[in-house]
Design brief:
single chain; 164 residues; 5 helices; 6 strands; alpha/beta
Length: 164
């Protein structure tokens, strides 16, 4: 399942992103706020590669003008890597594998950050368990009971994503 998920995310990053003017309705991926932020993102991407994460797509500046960053996907990310421990604030997805719910809850809650979490499952009980166990500001879940029926849950909490 992990490899299939990684491949789907790579396909979405490569095919579903329209980079450009944020005022253009067709655009769904605008620039970074400034050159300093773009440089920070590129530095973290470089760090991810050096620390052994698998860069699947992206990882570079997009175009010659502006502060655009290619949609970037990393696989095989470990908890100690900079791309896992620092808030990137850019279009960089870090994908890690896990063995069970309790492991991922412990790992997710063992961080200074907790801005958002998302769970995709077929199990309503799992969704509710994860929503109460994860210490995040915003929890979103999509539960597919049948191929044509989905439920979504969004829970908002007040937690500092900057680790203070």
């Amino acid at each position: 399942m992990y490899d299939k998920f990684v491949q789907k995310m790579v396909e979405k990053a490569q095919n579903d992103r329209v980079l450009g003017d944020p005022y253009d309705p067709k655009t769904n991926h605008g620039p970074q706020i400034d050159g300093e932020q773009l440089k920070k993102i590129l530095g973290l991407v470089e760090s991810g590669v050096k620390q052994g994460a698998s860069l699947q797509t992206g990882g570079a500046q997009y175009g010659e003008k502006g502060f655009f960053m290619q949609p970037t996907v990393f696989a095989d990310v470990q908890d100690h890597m900079d791309i896992s421990t620092q808030e990137i604030f850019g279009p960089v997805m870090q994908i890690s594998s896990f063995k069970n719910e309790e492991e991922i809850i412990e790992r997710a809650n063992n961080t200074n950050f907790g801005l958002a979490a998302a769970v995709f499952t077929k199990n309503v009980d799992r969704m509710y368990h994860m929503s109460s166990a994860l210490k995040v500001d915003l929890f979103g879940a999509t539960v597919t009971i049948y191929s044509f029926l989905s439920h979504r849950l969004v829970v908002s909490r007040n937690q500092d994503s900057e680790g203070t």
